[in-house]
Design brief:
The structure is a homodimer of 279-residue chains. Chain A is an alpha/beta fold and 279 residues long. Chain A folds into 2 domains: 1-45, no CATH class; 76-276, Sandwich (Protocatechuate 3,4-Dioxygenase, subunit A). The first copy, chain A, is built from 6 helices and 12 strands. In chain A, strands 1, 4, 10, 11 and 12 form a 5-stranded mixed beta sheet that branches. In chain A, a hairpin with a 7-residue loop joins strand 10 (259-260) and strand 11 (268-271). The longest helix of chain A is centred in the first third of the chain and has 21 residues, at 24-44. The termini of chain A are far apart. In chain A, 40% of the residues are buried. At the A-B interface, helix 1, helix 2, helix 3, helix 4 and helix 5 of A face helix 1, helix 2, helix 3, helix 4 and helix 5 of B.
Chain lengths: 279, 279
């Protein structure tokens, strides 16, 4: 038996309908969803036409999704939801390397390479040496850490976005640290690129006067036995989009120096240490 | 220039990105959306897997939508959102007939019929006389009120759900009141029916132990010059789903008597007056 619907009691009426045997975690999530959703609606008091526009937006967002496009993840990204969920799940002590969003472009099974290898296979862009150490919170080197890296090429695309155009595994590689915890490899200095903006999310960004660009970054997934894995980027110091990343991925601690080299076999050099939190 | 993302300031960081020239109403809606959405996420602290499940649910909901199926409206309905938006947009003084959800089955252009006509064209079900008056708040009859009615047939389907099976305009008609404000027509006693439950919304209902049924009802759209239109149902007194309507459409004032007739040319009779609020 439940109360009839009324504006004042709307969320309570809906929540009272859940059965007693509902999974407790699902119950908690649904209860909070309904409460916050009704509070939002009471705040803005949408007209019928606005409600219809919201239904239409959600419908178009779902209908654009395919094997190669996930518009709802993009929506989550540009609303800061992806970063918030990431932050909640990766709280770390001061000093430990911070997480950021995983992004859609990681591929399992990239080749494990010798330290110093060049992951840029298409010969484009400005060469860059990436180097640093994997350390624990006390500054001791972590041996056997797996450093999985990936970036866009000099045209702003990942290899999986351009099959047949870029070589497979272009700008991807996996490295394993030795006793000194050091890693080093060659690649290209990453470039800024826009998230896909030809769908409903792009239209929304335009209407709130936001651009779709992400600042240039190198992806890192660092894992080592006994430590919490770190999924993060290093961001290219000086990038014009650092303070307006379309998906809010930038944290100050993740902005890495990129320095012009004086001689050597790369044009740039970027040094960054990863500090892992024990499990 | 905006602050970098942090868990604590997440909603503020996102909202600070909107441009100064953003339409004020859109700005208000987006600001509230981001604030409530982030508050929801902070309340439940979803795991990455739960976030992925939410993305998957929304994607499937969008992908089921078609010309003949609107799963996002169904989601809005079962979460009480459709009724809340309806309530917010149709606040009325005591005594005026309350609104309820419009539903997806209205068709413009139904035939205008003479009072007393039988709208049931398929010969199925238990016949019922619907009658009553259209009145203003002082109890005066409203002349020239247009009473647009529609219901399911005895099998629980609207004509538009069964093209080629049901006659066109089965259980639909438009009537116009005379000087006495009275309306009367014949139809069938409506029956309960389930909302479509073979998609993500149906799966969600099952997981929270809710059924998909709507209590039996006759739809009315009543409009008259100088008065606010009323979109409502009358619900069949005694229906087992009155207190658990899957879409929360029932209001106590909309439950109508359905009485067995003693003789006469219909088996049932349902009397209901519509009280209109002036514009």
């Amino acid at each position: 038996m439940s109360e009839y619907f009324s504006e004042a009691s709307s969320a309570d009426v809906v929540n009272a309908r859940m059965g007693a045997q509902t999974d407790p975690r699902l119950r908690q999530i649904m209860h909070a969803l309904v409460s916050h959703l009704h509070a939002f609606i009471k705040d803005v008091e949408p007209t019928t036409a606005e409600w219809e526009a919201a239904i239409d937006f959600l419908t178009k967002t779902g209908q654009l999704c395919s094997e190669t496009r996930q518009e709802f993840i993009l929506l989550s990204d540009v609303l800061g939801v992806s970063m918030l969920v990431d932050a909640i799940n990766h709280r770390r002590p001061d000093g430990a390397t911070e997480n950021t969003v995983f992004g859609p472009f990681h591929v399992d099974g990239a080749p494990e390479l010798a330290m110093g290898a060049n992951i840029s296979l298409d010969g484009k862009g400005e060469s860059c040496l990436f180097e640093g150490r994997v350390l624990d919170l006390d500054g001791n080197p972590v041996e056997g850490a797996v450093v999985d890296v990936w970036s866009d090429n000099a045209d702003g695309f990942y290899d999986v976005q351009q099959p047949g155009i870029q070589p497979q595994w272009n700008n991807r590689g996996v490295f394993r640290t030795g006793a000194d915890g050091r890693y080093w490899f060659r690649g290209v200095k990453p470039v800024s690129y826009p998230i896909p903006d030809d769908g409903p999310v792009g239209q929304m960004l335009e209407r709130v006067e936001r651009h779709p660009w992400r600042p240039a970054h190198m992806h890192f997934l660092v894992h080592a036995s006994g430590f919490e894995s770190v999924t993060t980027h290093t961001f290219v110091e000086g990038d014009p989009y650092l303070e307006s990343d379309a998906v809010f991925g930038v944290k100050k601690s993740l902005i890495a120096p990129f320095e012009r080299t004086d001689g050597g076999d790369t044009s740039w050099r970027s040094q960054f240490d990863f500090i892992l939190k024990p499990m």
